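Hi team,

Below is the intake form for Cell division inhibitor from Ichthyobacterium seriolicida. Please confirm the fields before the structure is written into the shared record.

FORM ID: S-0412
PROTEIN: Cell division inhibitor
ORGANISM: Ichthyobacterium seriolicida
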Amino acid sequence: MKFDTVKENEVVIIFGGTGFLGQLLNRFLKYKGYTVWTISRDKQNNSDFEWDPYLKKFPVEILAKTDHIINLSGANLMKRWTENYKRQLVESRVISTRFIRELIEQNRHEIKSVINASGISIYGDRPNTLLTENDKPGTGFLEKLCVNWESEAREIRKLGVRTNILRISPVVHYDNPFIKTQFMAARLRLLAPLGLGTQYVPWVHYTDLLNIIHFLMTIPSCNSTYNVCSPNPIQQREMNKIIGDHIGKNQFAWSIPKQIIKLILGAKSQLLTDSIKTTPKRLIEAGYNFKYQNFSQALKHL
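The structure came back. Fields below:
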């Protein structure tokens, strides 16, 4: 992974910094010259500091030395969605973001910006509708989760701290469980269309995601909500073909009925079957130039 080095001499706190994305971001920002502190609830995760948003525990003295906060906290979406775990999915995001707002509100700080994650799933299933940040959220479980998550993040903005909310798409990187599963199936020639395979899949190359986060941290006029996705979403059937071509194996052509997927995965099936055709309108208007706009090109640079 190669990035342009820019000496910044600023301090960044990453909440949820020990996960897949947090680790990438940690390396990237350190390469850029930032001092990066990772915060985790798990003592075994080799984080720099520990916190507990439920018990409201946090080393508040570090806030006075912090320039930027990046909040990636949240329980893993890839686990089984029992009713108890669905509550955990919501609470791990909403409560952590609320506690960050309380920390900023109640303590001395010099924070210049906050980056708060959200999900591109906020729009729900919208076949063939090109969605921008101005479109209304959907009404399903994931959509409501994202709405509540973003609502807490906007409360931080009310404190006068520049706050950018990122509706993140599936990240194209080998360590992303979604991409890893796709490649494993493709090697077995079992990357079948899910449902009709015509649903649109938003995506973003990890290099663009990291650059977008840095872009939003450093551009003072950016203080909004952004679709973090390639300008070119593709249909799932086309994505399968490109992955198959990339590894040199034709894929199993029969589709898996949507009803079967829902029977196996329950509500979690919407991660695979919803059609979300988004465009990064606000990022483009803000002046960000995507390095990888074509999915086939993106796979060649992993």
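SUMMARY LINE: The longest helix spans residues 83-106.

Thanks, M.
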